[in-house]
From TrEMBL:
Belongs to the methyltransferase superfamily. UbiG/COQ3 family. Pfam families: Methyltransf_23. InterPro entries: SAM-dependent_MTases_sf, UbiG_MeTrfase. Keywords: Methyltransferase, S-adenosyl-L-methionine, Transferase, Ubiquinone, Ubiquinone biosynthesis. Its EC number is 2.1.1.222, 2.1.1.64. O-methyltransferase that catalyzes the 2 O-methylation steps in the ubiquinone biosynthetic pathway. Gene3D superfamilies: Vaccinia Virus protein VP39. It is an enzyme of class 2 (transferase). This is Ubiquinone biosynthesis O-methyltransferase.
Amino acid sequence: MSTLNADPAEIQKFSELAHRWWDPSSEFKPLHEINPLRLEWINQRAPLAGKQVIDVGCGGGILAESMAKKGATVTGIDLSDKALKVADLHGLESGVSVRYKKIAAEDMAEAEAGQFDVVTCMEMLEHVPDPASIIKACAKMVKPGGHVFFSTLNRNAKAYLFAVIGAEYLLQMLPKGTHDYAKFITPAELSQDIRNAGLELHAMKGLSYNPLTQIYSLNADTSVNYMVACTRPL
């Protein structure tokens, strides 16, 4: 088996916060606030009802549960025991059924290749040592003709100012140290990794936060947070 494509410090960091995952006023408030925007964008491009879906790096299950509510059969995978326990417990409380597994994306791709209509991997690529390996695993998990969605952070001065200085230090929306700027990924780099994995990139969308109105919006500005939609050719 290959070396695990994960940073133990990153897993530990999110594990320590796991009990706060479903608190909408906690460090995960931004995830709660952007989730409806992401969910609708995914659902518009790949209607979720009746689909087999996997959320890679699912954490406490915010996106996974919301996709299940849209009628999808959802699997969530992560490497944090604590986050997965929180996700399981919340599913019991909410009555929303999601299958959670502690498994690496690459191992899941070997075990269940070509089994999913939709693969999502949000805010994870910038937390792993080898993002290209995760992208290849996602490409392997999706069925021919299926959809793959990624979100990450651009690497430029504005992204550093907004996502690190602004969000972590000035506005204190996120815990200090949440992001490592060196691991941010430009759209050109992500596009190349997507092509190398055999996927076709169809759309890219920016996600912006207005600190004055405290409102997130989807737009064409990919300079900080951005999402991409891809398909696996038939």
